[in-house]
Amino acid sequence: MTARIHASTSSAGARASAATHADVAIGVPLPHESAELHVSGEAAYTDDLPELAGTLHVALGLSRYAHARIASLDLSAVRAAPGVVEVLTAADIPGENNCGPVLHDDPILAEDTVFYLGQPVFAVIATSRELARRAAALAKSDDVVRYEPLEAVLTVAAARERRQYVLPPLHLTRGEPAAKIAAAAHRLQGEFEVGGQEQFYLEGQIAYAIPKENAGMLVYSSTQHPSEMQQVVAHMLGRPAHNVVCECRRMGGGFGGKESQSAVFACIAALAADRLRRPVKLRPDRDDDFMITGKRHDAVYRYEVGFDDDGRILGTRVEIALRAGYSADLSGAVATRAVCHFDNAYYLADVDIVALCCKTNTQSNTAFRGFGGPQGALVMEVMLDAVARELGRDPLDVRMANYYGIGERDLTPYGQRVGDNVLAPLTAQLLESSDYRQRRAALGEFNRRSPVLKRGIAMTPVKFGISFNVPFLNQAGALVHVYRDGSVLVNHGGTEMGQGVNTKVAQVVAGELGLPLTQVRVSATDTSKVANTSATAASTGSDLNGKAAEAAARTIRERLAELAAKILGGDPAEVRFENATVEAGGASMPFAQLVNEAYLSRVQLWSDGFYATPKVHWDSKTLTGHPFYYFAYGAAVSEVVVDTLTGEWKLLRADLLHDVGRSINPAIDIGQIEGGFVQGMGWLTTEELWWNHEGRLMTHAPSTYKIPAVSDVPADFHTALYRNENAEPTVFRSKAVGEPPLLLAFSVFLALRDAVSACVPDAQAAPLLRAPATPEAILDAIAALEASRAGDAVTANGTATTATADSSNDASEAVPGDVLGAD
Ligand code: MTE
Ligand code: HPA
Ligand code: MOS
To answer: Residue 276 CA to chain centroid, in angstroms?
Structure first.
């Protein structure tokens, strides 16, 4: 990597900055609070907890069919296997056999029917993990579980055809899209598809449950949502929530995959621990983790757009068919976010959006960084690319012509104004720093001279809504303790998954109390410290928990200020807390000394804090409201080179410019931007989920499922923070950063489309490149483009056909499909 702009993420750089800013905790690129523990291997993950004497291990017997009735279950051979202590089925669950986060359609263990291949059917508890796994593998035998196969629905298309959904379709419409499309000078319709994505957290799912006295249960869980784990375990046991404590020190990544789906593991470990009165650990193997848990929703789209000579959209309709899998999980909220991100950065006066949560006999898809936002916005970028190619214009110009404006053209389809829009200046700055126009010209020259290697370039913008789109989830709590020596312990409801929430929250508290970061420690997340927390998700971890911790620290500071004014003189409102010193009335004293005086004066030195995001509301019937407190923005320029004989390609250069408001920690924010970009690139290029005709996921290990490696990071990589501050009074005027940068990777996919289209410069169609753009997909797209030049019918995925205004094609019928067609 060369020429980084802004804060360096190298540890030397971060260390130097830390030294320079020793006294200032907030707004500086301090290293992640666990950085040294991460690199030394000292950081403790759930599997690193010392095992208590008598610990047993669980392995799961998984369904061999995508959809079947369990005709018979004879577990005697499993019980007799070496080391086996107990075998449990759904019948052994004392409370509710459900761990679904919203609907009650997620059995912990299958009852009489299995709904996907990989579904847990029984749990084997043995003296070692190895013996448990060996015994569980007996599930492969017909003598153990006999199935009567039922018809399985394995594709989005098949589910859509049958109108088989886990939740009713979502439909948002504004204006008169059909009429506007019909009247437009140009029209275009198309189909597109994007694959799913496995979260591939480096630390797999895991739970360790320890029974406590009087029907208590302590569950260590690698989870983004300890309160939810507490609740589902309590329901499963049929006991009140106060019997259950869930704790998480940190995760080795979650990426949405541990927002709801840590539950089945937490429940089964707790079930076994409760039953056997012994500590029980459940750590599925990576392959089982792949087979059991849901992923990012893959999507199939149909779109239709009418536009003017400048490529300005006059009317558009889209149907987004998402693969929900066998149960609802979080799909309703994911689909809602997809609906609310179809617009991405663009004003759509007349628009119709349908989202379908298709029910298939596959894993139940769930949260993954972006949470439907990427699936909503990607099709818009593909559509605008097709529009630009239809008009023979640079897609960049068509994009900018459609940008949300300020004051006018600023109302989203769901009725929220885009009040904090920085798209135009941000894009201008990026085009300048990336040298886009000159590189576009040079690339055309290169492609004219180069028959086999073709280059492509693209700029794509991002506008991402920040807040949970379920308003009540936007709340958080914290509990801050100041001890007699002046050291501070912060408990908050957020969970650390590598994203740096603990570092940022500690920075906020340190900033509030005028202490160096070394004075502030963040505890493990624990449901007995802060109750009823939301998942650390929707990128809101630092926004919500930072505000709650700030409130708690402020309460303590105000109490201390009262006392300081008494001791030192002056007005309590003018007491200053800086450099671990307290100043008042022209005198000062060390913070620790004041704290000790406060203790001796019986001043309360700990406080809770609470935060609820203002302004957010949502009407789930009309799909309108103000679902987001604010928006985060960004844009990226990517340039690729494609080998048109093999379909292989390389990202040559990427320039990312992203808006994090006023950064609490630029080093962490740049890490999130780069990580999100590379993860998004993996989704759109190398990561391919493939189920066979039986519904068996065949890409269930790194051998067959390729996430990006360090070698995929471009040699020429420029990441910068856009100078901005949040228009809303968020903590430090910062903005959330976790998810939005994933969408910056659209630029890589669109650059690949650009390179493919350069293969057949005189083609009459836009390139039909599906995502992920694997080498096969790239070769297919080149072949389809060549066929279109030859005048053949085009049938590859991503079909686009065009019509001009004078054609007899009736626009209202142009996109097939009952849902879309029914206005
Ligand atoms: N970064 C790391 N290193 N590991 C993760 O698991 N998850 C992402 C993002 N960045 C993730 C990550 C997702 S999906 C979300 S919603 C946010 O972090 C959650 O954390 P935050 O709200 O504190 O940003
Ligand atoms: N993101 C993540 N999780 C959620 C959301 C969201 O927007 N809404 C409900 N759960
Ligand atoms: Mo992130 S997908 O909201 O956990």
So the answer is: 37
Tens digit of pLDDT for each residue in 149-181? 999 999 999 999 999 999 999 999 999 999 999
> How big is the chain by its Cα radius of gyration, in Å?
28
Q: Is the distance from CB of 520 to CB of 446 less than 8 angstroms?
A: no
Give domain limits for the chain: 46-151+199-292, 170-197+295-468+623-821, 475-612
* Helix extents (H) in 435-500: 436-449
Indicate whether residue 369 lines ligand 3 (CB < 6 A): yes
**Residue 413 C-alpha to ligand 3 middle, in angstroms?**
23
C-beta of 542 in contact with ligand 1 (< 6 A): yes
Any idea what the Cα angle at residue 414 is, between residues 541 and 187, rounded to 5°?
120
Instruction: Select from 459, 458, 509, 500 the least CA-distant residue to 479.
Output: 509
The pLDDT score that the predictor gives to residue 4 is: 38
Distance, in Å, from the CA atom of 529 to the CA atom of 495, rounded to the nearest integer, reads: 13
Q: Using an 8 Å Cβ cutoff, are 710 and 703 in contact?
A: no
Confidence category of residue 763, pLDDT binned at 50, 70, 90: confident
Query: What is the per-residue pLDDT across 484-510, written as a single tens digit (0 to 9) for each?
Result: 999 999 999 999 999 999 999 999 999
Ligand 1 centre from 247 Cα, in Å?
18
Separation in Å, CA 508 to CA 35, 580, 718: 18, 14, 28
Same fold, 170-197+295-468+623-821 and 475-612: yes
- CATH assignment of 46-151+199-292? 3.90.1170.50
What whole-number distance in Å separates Cα of residue 396 and Cα of residue 342? Answer: 18
Please give the pLDDT value at position 802. 54
Domain spanning 475-612, CATH architecture = 2-Layer Sandwich (3.30)
Buried b (16+ CB within 10 A) or exposed e, 348-380: bbbbbbbbbbbbbbbbbbbbbbbbbbbbbbbbb
Residue that the structure tokens 């400048």 belong to: 310
One-letter identity of residue 345: A
Query: Which helix (H) or strand (E) element contains residue 167?
Result: none
**719 exposure class (CB count in 10 Å sphere: 0-12, 13-18, 19+):** buried
Q: Using one digit for the tens of pLDDT, what is the confidence trace for 274-297?
A: 999 999 999 999 999 999 999 999
Per-residue pLDDT tens over the stretch 732-762: 999 999 999 999 999 999 999 999 999 988 7
Residues with CB under 6 A from ligand 2: 259, 330, 333, 337, 367, 371, 468-470, 473, 535, 537-538
Is 304 a residue of the active site? Answer: no
DSSP assignments along 236-268, one per residue:
HHTS-GGGEEEEES--S--TTTTTSTTHHHHHH
Whole-angstrom distance, CA of residue 326 vs CA of residue 362: 6
Can you tell me the distance from the alpha carbon of 46 to that of 281, in angstroms, rounded to the nearest whole number?
Answer: 10
Residue 172 contacts residue 316 (beta carbons within 8 Å): no
Q: pTM of the predicted model, to two decimals?
A: 0.94
Q: Positive or negative, the Cα torsion across 123, 127, 133, 138?
A: negative
Domain 170-197+295-468+623-821 belongs to what topology? Aldehyde Oxidoreductase; domain 4 (3.30.365)
The H or E element containing residue 213 is none
Reduced 3-state DSSP string for 718-783: EEEECCCCCCCCCHHHECCCCCHHHHHHHHHHHHHHHHHHHHCCCCCCCCCCCECCCHHHHHHHHH
Q: Report the relative pairing of strands 716-721 and 649-658 from DSSP bridges.
A: parallel
Angle at 35 between CA 33 and CA 39, to 5 degrees: 155
Ligand 1 atom nearest to 501, measured from its CA: 23
Closest ligand (CA of 536): 1
Q: Encoding tokens for residue 268? A: 């089964």
